[in-house]
Amino acid sequence: MRNAIIFSIGNELVEGLIIDTNSKYLSEKLKVLGYYVVRIETLPDKLDILVERFKAGLLEADLIITTGGLGPTEDDLTREAMAQALGCKLVIDEKIAQELVERALKYYGKAPESVKKQAMVIEGASVLDNPVGTAPGQMLQLNGKIVIILPGPPAEMIPIFESITQTIKTDDALYTRRIKTLGIPEAVLMNEYKDIIYSNPNITVATMASYERGVEVRLTGSTELKEEIDKVASELLNALGEHVYATDDDSIEDVVYKLLSENSLTISFAESCTGGMISSKFVDIPGVSKVYKGSVIAYSNEVKTSVLKVPESIINTYGAVSEECVKSMAENVRILLNSDFSIAVSGIAGPSGGTETKPVGTVCFAFSSDSFTRTITHHLRGNREMIRKRSTLLAFDIARRGILEWLRQREVSKE
Amino acid sequence: MRNAIIFSIGNELVEGLIIDTNSKYLSEKLKVLGYYVVRIETLPDKLDILVERFKAGLLEADLIITTGGLGPTEDDLTREAMAQALGCKLVIDEKIAQELVERALKYYGKAPESVKKQAMVIEGASVLDNPVGTAPGQMLQLNGKIVIILPGPPAEMIPIFESITQTIKTDDALYTRRIKTLGIPEAVLMNEYKDIIYSNPNITVATMASYERGVEVRLTGSTELKEEIDKVASELLNALGEHVYATDDDSIEDVVYKLLSENSLTISFAESCTGGMISSKFVDIPGVSKVYKGSVIAYSNEVKTSVLKVPESIINTYGAVSEECVKSMAENVRILLNSDFSIAVSGIAGPSGGTETKPVGTVCFAFSSDSFTRTITHHLRGNREMIRKRSTLLAFDIARRGILEWLRQREVSKE
């Protein structure tokens, strides 16, 4: 397997002002392309450090990728440092220089000499078009090694990197299927379905459990195993049934959106402890207006009774965190917002507000449709943020299961 | 200045499964404690790589901090690797071993020998208590160098690191003031207030502009300059007036929460394009129920008219993205949810939905109180996510300015 080293460059990174998301993205992609990432180095914008670290990296790795340090100011030293480390010259790319000057004139009315800095290219490197920003990427192949230089902003880095994945792919490139589940504990899943999961010794199995995404099974092997991996994945999908909420790159909200959109149906939410998180996550999806009416965030009991018309007797008898309350919230918000379905969530996210019978982490959920309502209570662990994120995931899951049940009922009644 | 290297350890990091937030936290803190972070290295759980990289780091840096790789399984190799790199032995800490065995018996009913792995300590190191998890931290001083070993989960790493900041602080420790502004472009701010900002040549000035947080001015210097830095900060605060939305660690939602809480006032929101993001961010604050009633997420026009009672004539005449519409949304949600104040937001987050007169990024905001309503329209740049995040920031800012105006009016009327 070929080795790779990723360099993330910028004072803002080593001073802790921003989080490096580029390296996560690149290391995940590089694994699939068949590289072993021996390390990621985050470095300041300092020429001597960059030259020394690049030189060390070039001795050890088959592939070097840098992100950041390609701006037009004096701080931006990645180009210079890599040229020095490689013992190559920097030359001006006249076509890019011309574009940069025209762009500067158009936007700022003047084009100082410094704008041309971004047109400096390591001699022999191919220029990688930047569809979003001004600094192009560069790729150089030298003595069997590949050096790739990319800009720092993720919106610029990602499309440039995607344009070269086929070029740098190795014979060790991998094929991966991801099966995302909820409602079955990791240990139970891996034990009950082990005959399927481990049926092919050539396939590597990994699991990952998280409060935000449930339990994910990853099946990985060389690209030649594609059909075999797909076969195991499809057997596992069949066996797990509705416990699978999504596969591969889909999120749970994507799946709920698709279920609604394909059937021209709509949804609304009534949120208490999640406080708008379910709604906001759903609105992350462009075009969601086709299926999403809106929500009532009933954070106070007053809003639960005044806007959502939950009878005061329910709150007095069972409390605001009860299946009775979320049932009423769900049914009423569905009618109030004129949607086909609705979800309601009420719980205790903490840190305070817990009692002996309803400790922090108690969260009630309801799904409502014109033909049935389902409720469930979960006891969640973790801090306020974890409880709210897990509740958001579970809310989408009760929506997914409810919509599937409703669609099945409709099929039966049609027959 | 003393040099530091941070090592983040874990296969899940170099395979891109999770994002490294520890290094951001540590590098920000180390700067303030007087260290220059020469690099951050992210490494896999592989003994030979770890030993080699730790050895290289020990030659270069005065302070080495590792996070991760302290679990009880065979994958977790940080302890062993650091002992080898230092040429020291690992010894068992009997007190911790005893605690780990008792804990395992309590939670799992059995205590395999492997639980004692987490009690292995580098000879001569002090044990750093882990108040949250099982793996303690370790600190070793050797030949004028400091080695600190911390667990990977942030909830465990942070309190342990905080317990030793006073011990590792250098004579170059820094004092920083952060002034966070909105409503004045970075270039204008730095030019108009340069006489204050640059009044003391011993103070280092840095600015950071972001769509999520506005423009931040950082004043930094040695801890001995504390009074001088505070003086410049306070002059700048006076000069900038209401453009300053927060200082130091406060966020804009913290400031709105405090303004409401200190005056026993309440707020509600009517959101369209932000889709619950304003609400969800506010509910991140524990105890927010004191000041927050709830929200109506009126994503569809139907909900704007049916629940929020925006007259259809307003939507037909001016459109849903208009100051007229948000004014009506804000006034009506305030009355519907019985709060002292309200904020309404309606805009075009894209990628589709833009028109020639109202392109993607057009966002209207309204603040409503019992005595006045204010509206404003912003034209924002960026993708859907950036527009929604910027809108959320601006919504809290119009709330902050509106509440301050209302409080001033109340003061005047009392006189």
Descriptive notes:
Two copies of one chain form a homodimer. Chain A is elongated. Chain A folds into three domains: 2-168, MoaB/Mog-like domain (Molybdenum Cofactor Biosythetic Enzyme, Chain A, 3-Layer(aba) Sandwich); 174-247, Alpha-Beta Plaits; 252-414, CinA-like (Maf protein, Alpha-Beta Complex), CATH 3.90.950. Chain A has helices at residues 11-14, 22-32, 47-60, 78-86, 94-108, 154-162, 165-168, 186-192, 194-197, 226-240, 252-262, 277-283, 301-306, 312-318, 323-336, 384-414; strands at residues 2-9, 35-43, 63-67, 90-92, 120-122, 126-128, 137-142, 145-150, 174-181, 204-210, 214-222, 244-247, 267-271, 292-297, 341-347, 362-368, 373-379. Chain A is built from 16 helices and 17 strands. In chain A, helix 12 (277-283) links the parallel strand 13 (267-271) and strand 14. In chain A, helix 3 (47-60) packs across helix 4 (78-86) and helix 11 packs parallel to helix 16 (384-414). The longest helix of chain A is centred in the C-terminal third of the chain and has 31 residues, at 384-414. The mean pLDDT of chain A is 94. Helix content of chain A is 40%, strand content 25%. In chain A, the strands form four sheets. A six-stranded mixed β-sheet of chain A has the order 2-1-3-8-7-6, with helices on both faces. Chain A has a five-stranded mixed β-sheet with strand order 14-13-15-16-17, with helices on both faces. With 415 residues, chain A is an alpha/beta fold. Chains A and B meet through helix 1, helix 2, strand 2, helix 12 and strand 14 of A and helix 2, strand 2, helix 12, strand 14 and helix 13 of B.
